[in-house]
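Title: Prediction job returns without error message
Component: structure pipeline
Severity: low
Priority: P3
Assignee: unassigned

Description:
Job completed but the reporter wants confirmation the result is attached to the right record. Sequence as submitted:
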Amino acid sequence: MNASSSLSDIPLPPGIRSRFVDGINGLRMHVLEAGYETRGRPCILLLHGFPELAYSWRKVMPRLAAAGYHVIAPDQRGYGRTTGWNADYDGELNSFRLLNMVRDVLGLVSAFGYRAVDAVVGHDAGSSVAAWCALVRPDVFRAVVLMSAPFAGPPPLPFDTADGPPKPKRDDPVHRDLAALPRPRKHYQWYYSTREANANMHHARQGVHDFLRAYYHHKSADWKDNAPYPLKAWTASELAKLPTYYVMDFAKDMAETVAEEMPSPAHIAANQWLPDSELTFYSAEYTRTGFQGGLQWYRCGTSGAFTTELETFSGRSIDVPSCFISGKQDWGTYQRPGVFEAMQTTACSRMLGCHLVDGAGHWVQQEQPEQVSRLLLEFFKQAKIGG
């Protein structure tokens, strides 16, 4: 049952409950929970990405609970039924910065009475939050799983510069170069940071439901042109090889972009991993909240306003046991050239596995939940042996 009668029921599998937890860093946090029937279980925390919700973990949670874990999945700041955040484009961005997201997660863990959790698992934008949780508080987050978005490590500080002339900060020419291509393009993260991005999706001509259907389809293994490979460099010519959901046509918004890849009614009817009855919950939630809460995360990243705070951890690596899971058909693994490799060589010092799951695109835990659950449980066992 939901804590508010004005909210619709969530179509959850047996064994998952919905609840609210107050006083979490200024938030009233909506949480899905499995394995809550008995106390004293080890805890696993699941952090969703964009445009998703705690609901995105519905297929994995019962499997982890059956293995003996207490599983907690929140609607993160900016999303779903969690309240206490501000979606005003002209409001403050400060609360959406990465280290405050870590504070949100710490507060949630503490509210549930845990001094530490066995693992934090993050998907997409949630992967960044999970990575910083493990980097900043390894005493609390004893292992980490990064999904669909590899972690490059903290931003570096300028090094060995005392005896040289000061170098001006160089502007990244890639956006100008993308716009100057014969087929002008733009990067989706910078588009997501614009004032109009929320309205483009929230008031999409096709409606929120069909927008999300096309968006999820376009980034899934169902879209047959998703056959990713490493890019050579962060240059316009290389980035232009990415699908349009990452590097968009310059004159199009995201709703127009994905509308071109809308699956047929027959394809939708045959979809097993995201039937329309489940998509309806996402579309109802995003119709209610809009997308700006999630877009604030992108704005924090593209603005560079909080980079200096992250540079405090320059040179640090994730030293707890770590694992990476992504769809084999997910371009997210390679969208930032060199990061997938850096994660395995320098950013994570105890990486125990790196898995690309066939038959999954970007929504790996929804497209291939059995495989993902198996890989998670194997890693949790391994991490304990190594810890």
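Comment from assignee: result matches the submitted record. The beta strands are 16-24, 27-34, 43-47, 70-74, 119-123, 144-147, 185-187, 247-249, 322-327, 351-357.
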